[in-house]
C-alpha cells in the first residue's frame, strides 16, 4: 500500500490526512493513534503550503519483524528549507507568526521523526508510527 | 477530395440504420434503452442521424465551419446527456450506445459495393474523425456539468458551515462541523462577531463535536476567535472536545488554558446559566447593600 498526494492547496491537506487516517484504520490503529497520524499529516501538509507553496505527501505501510506493522509518512517539498533546525523544534518558535507547535508537536505524536533539509533546496520530513510502539 | 462522400451515401439510409441500431440495443437490453425508454431513444437516434450529414460536409477543417456544423449535434448531446444524468445514468451507459452506431456505420462502409481500398480508408478515417469529435464534445459537456455541480456544492457547504444560533436570551451557540480551513475560519469568525454585536450577547458556546481533527492550525484559529469575541464583549465556552482530540491536543502542546471548556453543549449551557444567575444574585446583593447604606 502506497499513496502519493500532491499538496497544492489546503484542500489537499484535508485529502491527505483523510487518506492517512483511512490507511491507519485499515492497519488496525486505535482511534487515538488514527487521530495522531491524521493530525501529523495535517501539520506537515500545512507546513508545505505555508512555507514551500507546493509539495507532496507519501503514505506507506511498513512491516517490521514478525508481528509489527506501522505507517510511514514522508512530506517533501522544494521550498526554502529550514535554516535553523534546532529552533524549528522548539515549542512556540514560529517564523510565520503561528503557534509554533506544529513540528515539535508532531514529533511528540509520532514514534519516529526525522528531518532532511537543505536551505534553498527543500525539506523532507519522515515520520513513523508503529502499531506496537516499541521501535525507537 | 471529398472523404466524406461515401459516409453521406451510407447515412442517407436512415430508416434501416436506426432499425438495426434499435434492434441491437433491444437485444442486449442496453442500459440506456431501459433507462430512458425505447420510444425516446428511437426519436433521439433519428435526430442524430438527421444531423449526421452536416458533420460530413467537406471543408469542416476550418474551425468556424466545424463549430457551425457541430452546433446541432452539441445541442443534441446536451439534451440526451442531461436526460441520462437526470435518470441516474453515467457516461458508461451513454458511450456504448453511441459507439454501437459507429460499429453499424463502419460495417456498412466496409460492405459498400463500389469501395476501393482508398475509399474504404478515407471513409473509415472520416468516420473516426466525426465520432472522435462527438466523443470530445460529450465529455466536455459532461465535465462542465460536473464542475458546476461541485462548485455549487462547495458554495452550499460554505453557506451551511457556520450557523450562529441564539439558544437563550444573551447566549449564542456556534456548532462547528467538518474541516476548518483558513477560508472557513475567517467566515466563521466574521459571522460570529457580527451576531454577538447584533444580538448583544455576552455568552457564546463554541461546540466542536463535529470537528474530527484539531491540529495546531485549527487550535490557533479557535483561540483567535475566542479572543476576538472577548474584544466585542462576549465570553466563550468551548464544548464537545472529543477524547481523542483532547489527548492529541495535550501531546501537541497546544494551550487552551484561558478558555473555559465543558464536555458537552448541555454542560456548557448550564455553566453559563449558572454564571448568569450568580451575576444576578451579586447584582441584587449589591443593590440591597446600597439601599441599606442609604437608609442608615
Topology of helices and strands:
The complex is a heterodimer of chains A (136) and B (296).
Chain A: E1 2-7, H1 10-27, H2 31-52, E2 55-64, E3 68-77, H3 85-88, H4 102-109, E4 112-118, E5 122-130
Antiparallel strand pairs in A: 1-2, 2-3, 3-5, 4-5
Helix pairs in contact in A: 1-2, 2-4
Chain B: H1 5-11, H2 14-27, H3 31-36, H4 38-55, H5 63-69, H6 71-86, H7 91-111, H8 117-160, E1 165-168, E2 171-177, H9 182-199, E3 203-210, H10 216-231, E4 235-239, H11 243-252, E5 260-262, H12 265-295
Parallel strand pairs in B: 2-3, 3-4, 4-5
Antiparallel strand pairs in B: 1-2
Helix pairs in contact in B: 2-4, 2-7, 4-6, 6-8, 7-8, 9-10
Give the overall form of chain B: rod-shaped
Elements of chain B, N to C (H/E): HHHHHHHHEEHEHEHEH
Count of helical regions of chain A? 4
Integer average pLDDT of chain B: 85
CATH architecture of chain A, please? 2-Layer Sandwich
Q: The biggest beta sheet of chain A, please? A: 5 strands, antiparallel
* Total number of beta strands of chain B: 5
Protein name (chain A): Anti-sigma regulatory factor
InterPro entries (chain A): HATPase_C_sf, HATPase_dom
Organism (chain A): Tumebacillus lacus
Pfam families (chain B): STAS
List its salient traits.
heterodimer, A: 136 residues, alpha+beta, Heat Shock Protein 90, 38% helix, globular, B: alpha/beta, Globin-like, Transcription Regulator spoIIAA, 2 domains, 5 strands, Anti-sigma regulatory factor (chain A), HATPase_C_sf (chain A)
Describe the 3D structure.
The complex is a heterodimer of chains A (136) and B (296). Chain A has 136 residues and is an alpha+beta fold. Chain A has a single domain, classed as Histidine kinase-like ATPase, C-terminal domain (Heat Shock Protein 90, 2-Layer Sandwich), CATH 3.30.565. Chain A contains four helices and five strands; from the N terminus they run E-H-H-E-E-H-H-E-E. Chain A has a five-stranded antiparallel sheet with strand order 1-2-3-5-4, with helices on one face. In chain A, strand 2 and strand 3 form a beta hairpin. Chain A is globular. The two termini of chain A are 23 Å apart. In chain B, helix 9 links the parallel strand 2 and strand 3. The mean pLDDT of chain B is 85. In chain B, helix 2 packs across helix 4, helix 2 crosses helix 7 and helix 9 packs parallel to helix 10. Chain B is rod-shaped and about 125 Å long. The longest helix of chain B has 44 residues. Chain B folds into two domains: 154 residues, Orthogonal Bundle (Globin-like); 131 residues, 2-Layer Sandwich (Transcription Regulator spoIIAA), CATH 3.30.750.24. Chain B has 296 residues and is α/β, with parallel strands linked by helices. In chain B, strands 1-2-3-4-5 form a five-stranded mixed sheet, sandwiched between helices.
Amino acid at each position: 500500500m502506497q499513496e502519493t498526494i500532491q499538496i497544492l492547496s489546503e484542500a489537499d491537506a484535508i485529502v491527505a490526512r483523510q487518506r492517512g487516517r483511512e490507511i491507519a484504520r485499515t492497519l488496525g490503529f486505535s482511534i487515538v493513534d488514527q487521530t495522531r497520524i491524521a493530525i501529523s499529516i495535517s501539520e506537515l501538509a500545512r507546513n508545505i503550503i505555508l512555507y514551500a507553496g507546493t509539495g507532496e505527501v507519501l503514505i506507506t505501510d511498513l512491516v517490521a519483524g514478525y508481528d509489527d506493522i506501522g505507517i510511514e509518512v514522508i512530506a517533501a517539498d522544494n521550498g526554502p528549507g529550514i535554516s535553523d533546525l534546532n529552533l524549528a523544534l522548539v515549542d512556540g518558535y514560529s517564523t510565520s507568526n503561528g503557534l509554533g507547535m506544529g513540528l515539535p508537536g508532531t514529533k511528540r505524536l509520532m514514534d519516529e521523526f526525522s528531518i532532511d533539509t537543505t536551505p534553498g533546496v527543500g525539506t523532507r520530513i519522515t515520520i513513523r508510527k508503529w502499531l506496537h510502539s516499541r521501535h525507537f | 477530395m471529398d472523404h466524406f462522400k461515401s459516409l453521406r451515401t451510407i447515412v442517407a439510409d436512415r430508416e434501416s440504420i436506426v432499425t438495426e441500431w434499435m434492434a441491437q440495443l433491444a437485444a442486449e437490453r442496453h442500459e440506456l434503452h431501459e433507462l430512458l425508454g425505447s420510444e425516446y431513444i428511437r426519436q433521439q437516434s433519428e435526430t442524430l442521424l438527421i444531423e449526421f450529414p452536416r458533420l460530413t460536409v467537406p471543408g469542416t477543417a476550418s474551425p468556424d465551419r466545424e463549430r457551425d456544423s457541430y452546433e446541432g449535434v452539441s445541442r443534441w448531446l446536451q439534451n440526451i446527456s442531461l436526460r441520462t444524468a437526470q435518470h441516474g445514468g453515467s457516461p458508461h451507459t451513454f458511450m456504448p450506445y453511441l459507439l454501437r452506431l459507429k460499429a453499424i456505420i463502419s460495417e456498412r462502409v466496409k460492405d459498400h459495393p463500389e469501395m476501393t481500398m482508398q475509399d474504404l480508408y478515407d471513409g473509415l478515417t472520416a468516420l473516426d474523425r466525426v465520432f472522435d469529435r462527438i466523443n470530445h464534445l460529450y465529455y466536455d459537456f459532461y465535465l462542465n456539468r460536473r464542475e458546476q455541480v461541485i462548485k455549487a456544492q462547495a458554495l452550499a457547504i460554505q453557506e451551511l458551515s457556520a450557523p450562529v444560533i441564539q439558544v437563550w436570551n444573551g447566549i449564542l451557540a456556534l456548532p462547528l462541523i467538518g474541516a476548518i480551513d483558513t477560508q472557513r475560519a475567517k467566515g466563521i469568525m466574521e459571522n460570529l462577531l457580527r451576531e454577538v454585536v447584533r444580538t448583544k450577547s455576552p455568552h457564546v458556546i463554541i461546540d466542536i463535536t463535529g470537528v474530527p481533527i484539531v491540529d495546531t492550525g485549527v487550535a490557533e484559529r479557535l483561540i483567535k476567535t475566542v479572543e476576538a469575541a472577548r474584544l466585542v464583549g462576549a465570553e466563550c465556552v468551548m464544548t464537545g472536545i472529543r477524547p481523542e482530540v483532547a489527548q492529541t491536543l495535550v501531546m501537541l502542546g497546544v494551550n487552551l488554558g484561558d478558555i473555559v471548556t465543558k464536555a458537552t453543549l448541555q454542560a456548557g449551557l448550564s455553566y453559563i446559566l449558572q454564571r448568569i444567575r450568580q451575576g444576578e444574585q451579586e447584582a441584587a446583593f449589591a443593590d440591597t447593600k446600597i439601599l441599606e447604606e442609604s437608609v442608615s
